[in-house]
Amino acid sequence: MPLEVIPTGRHWVDNFLLPTLLIHQFERAEREGDIDLKLLTLQRMMKYFFLAGHMHYACYLTQYLLEMASLHAEAKVDLVCRHHAGYWNAVSADQFGEQTAIKMGKGGLKGMTLSAELVSEWIDAFPITAHVSDRLDVVYSDDKPGKSAQNYHKEELKHRCVLDAKDRDLIYAKVEKYPHPLEDVCPHLYNPINGQIAPVDVNVADSITIGEKMQREYIASLPKGFYNPISSPIKTMSVLKKQTKGKNIRPVMDLWTPSYVVPLAYLSAFRKELESLIELDIQTHT
Fold first, then answer.
1. What burial letters (b/e) apply to 113-129, b meaning 16+ CB within 10 Å?
2. pLDDT for 26-82, tens place per residue?
3. Is the pLDDT assigned to residue 273 strictly greater than 80?
4. What values do phi and psi take at 197, rounded to 5?
5. How many CA atoms lie within 13 A of 138 on its CB side?
6. Could you say which DSSP state residue 96 is in?
7. Contact 214, 53 (CB under 8 A)
8. What residue ranges do the domains of the chain occupy?
C-alpha cells in the first residue's frame, strides 16, 4: 500500500525522518565547504520554514537561493576556514573569526572593561593583531607540515562507536514496546504511544504539500510580496493534549489490531526502498 494513504507513516517520514536527514546533510555541506550540496539542502529545507511560520528565514533564504540560482557555477563559493588541516572540520568564515577572537582574546580585556574607549580601541585593533600573530606562527612554527592534520572525525573513535551502539540498543528496546508507525495500514492519523486518533482538521500529515504550495505562492508574489506576513496553517497532534478529559476526549484505537498489520513482504520491500534511497542520496554527494 502506498505511503500516501497511511497518514501516520507519512507524518513520521515527512516531519521527522526527512528533516533529520536534512540536518545531517546541511552539517556535511558546512563541514566540507560544499556550496552545491548546501544550496540543494537549503532548497529542500525551505518548505519547513514556511510551515513553521519563520518569516525571516523564509523571506531572506528565498531571496538568497534565487540570487544564487542566477549566478554562474564558478561564482558560487562557500567561504569556509579550517583551524587545522584535514577534513570534516571546516567552519563558516564569520564563525571562524569569532572562534579565533575568543581563543586569542581570552583575558585580553582584563582591567580594561571599565573604559569604553579602551574596549573600542582593543576591538578595532584586534583584526590586524590576529593577522600578524597568525603570520608569525607560520614563520616560526616548529610543527611539521601535516602534523596536526585531522584525518578522522571524533565520532569514528572506537569508544564513541561503542557508546553509540549502546544508545541504539536502548532506543530499539524502547520503540519495540509500541507499534511502528511505518508498519501498519491504519487509515487514521493517530498517536502510536497511546492510540489516540487525531481529529479530521489536523493536517500535519499533509505538511509537505502545504509547505510547497506556500513556497510557490510566495515566490510568485515577489518582489512586491517580499514582506507579506507568513503564518503557519498547520494544525499538529498537540491538539490531542487538550482533548483528554470530559466530553472532548478523542477516540482510542487498539494499537495491536491484526487488521492494521502490514504483510511482511510489503514491510521488507518498503524498508529496502528507504535504505536504498538514503544510500543513493549519500553516494550522490560523496
1. eeeeeeeeebeeebeee
2. 988 988 888 999 999 999 999 999 999 999 999 999 999 999 999 888 888 877 887
3. no
4. -90, 135
5. 8
6. H
7. no
8. 1-93+204-286, 94-140
In what helix (H) or strand (E) does residue 268 lie, and over which residues does it extend? Answer: helix 264-284
User: Cα(38)–Cα(25) distance, rounded to whole angstroms?
Assistant: 8
Task: Express each pLDDT in 140-164 by its tens digit.
Answer: 555 555 555 666 667 778 888 888 8
Rounded-to-integer distance, Cα 251 and Cα 244, Å: 10
d(CA 107, CA 95): 20
| Residue 278 one-letter amino acid | I
DSSP per residue, 15-62: IIIHHHHHHHHHHHHHHHT-HHHHHHHHHHHHHHHHHHT-HHHHHHHH
Q: What is the DSSP letter of 143?
A: P
Round to whole Å and give the CA distance between 193 and 185.
Answer: 16
Residue whose C-alpha is closest to residue 7's, from 181, 125, 127: 181
Alpha carbon distance 267, 69 (integer Å): 40
| pLDDT recorded at residue 175 | 78
Please, is 239 exposed, middle or buried when counting C-beta atoms within 10 Å of its C-beta (0-12, 13-18, 19+)? middle
Give the separation between CA 115 and CA 42, rounded to whole angstroms: 43
Interval 81-104: pLDDT, tens? 877 777 778 888 777 766 766 666
Q: What percent of the chain has pLDDT over 90?
A: 26
d(CA 85, CA 103): 18
Residue 93: per-residue pLDDT: 75
